Structures are given as C-alpha cells and as structure tokens.
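Section 5.1 Outputs to date
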Amino acid sequence: MTKPTGSRKGDRRMNESCQTPKHTRDIDGPGAASLGMLDPLVGLPPVLDACCSVRGFWFDKTDDRAMFMDKREGEFGTTKGPLIVAPDVVADFTDMPFPDNSFRLVVFDPPHHTAKRLGSTDKGDMARRYGRLLANWRDTLRGGFAECFRVLRPEGVLIFKWYDAEIPVKDVLALTTEKPLFGHISGKANRTHWIAFMKPNNIINVKEDEG
C-alpha cells in the first residue's frame, strides 16, 4: 500500500535539527480534490494522524504506514528552540479531504487548552506546539470526532488522546455518540487519557437484524 505521490523535502533538515521532518506531498492545497478521488483501499496508508503537530509520540516520525495531517505548517520559534510542523496533508480535522471508510486506524490528539488558559494569541510555547481551542471548542471537537469516524473503515480503531487539566474528559466524550472500548491514564499528574474506540460495522448489524 502506497501513499499519494509526493516529496520528502526535509529529511536532511530533520537530521540536522533533530526536529520533525519536512515530509510533504505534492497536492493542490488543503482539502485537495485529487486526494478525495483516491481509492481508499489502494491510494492511502492504513493509519491517519489527524492533528500530528510535531509527531511527538511516534517512534518513527516518517512511518510510511501513516498519513500525517495538521492544519498548520511551518517553523515556529519557542523558548526551547525551533519547532517544525510538517504534515503530509494540510487540512482541518473538522473537514478532512479523504473518502469515507479510508483508514484502519485514526489517531486523534486535538488541542486540549482554550484561549482562556493559553491567552488570545498563538505566541506561547504550548499554543505553538499543540494549538489552542476557541470558544466554540465543543463544536470543533464534535466535528473532529464525526470526521474521524467517517474516514475510519467499519471496525476500524480510533485512538483518542486528551489532557484534562482544563476540560474534563467526560465533557469531551459527551461530544460523540460512539461508545469507547477502554482507556488508560498516564502522565506525572495522571491527567493524560488514552481512549480506544471501534467504529461499528453497520453492514453486519443490518444483516443480523434482517436475519
């Protein structure tokens, strides 16, 4: 299984800076119609990281099994040095440029703080690394969940990550009608939640109901 034809523009840059690679594809901008026409069984990798940022929890930041997506792209200055956000596809997780039922696994690690905590600009280190939610964060996350499940194949798995220092995880899980399977809490303060979902196979369910 191969990814859309494109270019790896920054592998050398990654080696020099020890930051995320500039790993992009030649597409016609965010939400490119050409991506939407690809056969999901042939043209796309099995895994999607829906808001990859710097690919911080990936063992291999250029893993060919994954498509890395983020609405941001570029190099941002922080107090700890340059931060490079280099997605394969530049798009918003509330409006993904992929067909239905495209991926076997989707990773969803959205921004978890609002402007109330991070301020009204994106100048802080945390805002630049993770992004920030606006006042309509419920609509944003609800749309993100809906898109993640749309592009998942039936019985595909969604891995959702949330840090609940500001917004309780129960308030976020209430934004999707899908039922989580299990989860794990990690981090120094036990505030980082990893939660697994499985997309229902409605075709099987319909057949069982008809039988």
